[in-house]
Amino acid sequence: MSNCDENKTLLGNEIKGRPGPVQILNNNDKGEKIIDEDEKASSDNKTEGPDGGWGWVAVLGSFISTCVLDGICNTFGVMMDPLVKDLGQDRVSVSTVGSVQIAVYFFTGPLAASLVTRYGARPVSICGSILASGGLLWASFSSSLPSLMFGYSLITGLGFGLMYIPAVVAVAHYFTRRRALATSICVCGTGAGTFIMPPLVQFLLDNYGWRWTFGCLSCLCLACILCGAVMVPIQAPAVEPGEDTANHSQGTRRKKTFLQRVFCFVVSEDLVMSSRFGLFLVALTGDFLATMALYIPYTHLPKLAESRGVPAAQAAFLISAAGVSNTLGRVLSGWISDKQWIHPLHLTMAVTSIATIPILILPWCSVYWTFLAMSSLFGLLTGCWVAAESPLIVSLLGLELLTPGFGLLTAGGGLAALAGPPLAGVAVDLGSPGMALVMSGCVMAAAGGSYGVATWRKYRYTRRELYLEI
User: Fold this and answer.
1) pTM of whole model > 0.85?
2) CA–CA separation, 4 vs 33, rounded Å?
3) Is 380:226 a contact under the CB 8 Å cutoff?
4) In whole angstroms, what is the distance from residue 276 CA to residue 457 CA?
5) CA atoms of 72 and 105, how far apart (whole Å)
6) For residue 178, which of 14, 43, 49 has the smallest C-alpha distance?
7) How far apart (Å, rounded) are the C-alpha atoms in residues 336 and 342?
8) Does residue 25 contact residue 36 with C-beta atoms inside 8 Å?
């Protein structure tokens, strides 16, 4: 063996906190370090790739799309009373309309991802806007609960699902160094929509009634066609010739396991046959648990605060405070992820674990300022977690698998959102609103543990892939 071979030093991209090609530094006879060509190519890809330009217009379009669709989803409760009165139904039946819409919206994720992969983000987003507009227009003429369910829940929910996935994944292809910040700005539309839409809907209800309100919302969704139109397709950045590409090509030659065959029915085969799909599923488990825990405090916190003597108006403001800090956390998470100070998986594990603390403290709060501080901290930490989802998928699977990976993650989040509140309701029936928050804290702690397992498995994967490259 030559002296050069004996002095090879293997360095993985774990030093940078991101998966990538194995870099080999050779020591020549003069003791000088020669950088491997893969390392140089990786560096060039990161500096020469797209990083803005028209991408910022796409960011604005995506922000508006998420603002509209999530704003409408989160304001159904404002329309409950007039719908119950006019349709002659009980509140439980009418509330099902909003729940089913959110479920359809989330479960459309894999379908939307498949369509984006095949046809591109722009046509899928435009079709979603048209469907959502048509569903709301149908709902405005509904005179029965089944008709309202068909228009508002099924058609509009499907349209929202087709709008949401392109709004998040399309922006990633316009950026390299500021990709995480750009996607975090897009998902901030959720907080903006939740802040803007309720007073707008209430104004329309007070002055024009719920039918004209649905009609106006239909026009708003139709205008989102312009948001989809700005998602001009661009040439995808060059894929680094590193471990993700090599491992994927090796994975496609392996025989499918039973679990992989099951997932092939809902997501792309490229994602399922990736060598890191098992690692992604562990991270997906953490996301499922964190989503289940997320909606419980927003549902039961105001009632808990009122039971401790907090006035109703101040108790309701706790949700607004959490929403504002959540938006701040999303931008902060994107900025940190772009700086590469910490791997998105480590950031996610940290914020979900720490988020357990304010959730478990809230049941013991007795004065308003402690409620305000803990709810704001909870919003900040969960905002960091939500914004880290997209960078996490890119870091584990690569940019080329972001779309199907995010689609599967969205579907899992929909299932978690449906499971969490009913379980919390059982906890309230057995005890008090504080019991629901205790349960939420335990579930969030389990999410942090799942991300911890994913971190450990990522370390194992990286070492194994390092030796495979040798």
Assistant:
1) no
2) 11
3) no
4) 10
5) 12
6) 49
7) 7
8) yes
Location of structure tokens 């099951």: 262
- Residue 33 has phi, psi (to 5 degrees) of -90, 130
DSSP lists the bridge partners of residue 11 as 23
Model confidence pLDDT, tens digit, residues 83-101: 888 888 777 778 778 778 8
Q: What is the pLDDT of residue 5?
A: 45
3-state secondary structure of 71: helix
Length of the chain: 470
Lookup: tokens for 463: 């070492």
Taking only the tens place, the pLDDT of each residue in 417-432 is 777 766 766 666 666 6
Within 8 A by CB and 6+ apart from 286, the residues are: 348, 349, 352, 447, 448, 449, 450, 451, 454
Domains of the chain: 3-46 (no CATH), 51-229 (1.20.1250.20), 243-469 (1.20.1250.20)
Q: Which residue from 315, 334, 426 is spatially nearest to 389, judged by alpha carbons?
A: 334
> Which amino acid is residue 59, in one-letter code?
V
Q: What is the residue whose two structure tokens read 């964190």?
A: 290
Q: What is the pLDDT of residue 245?
A: 40
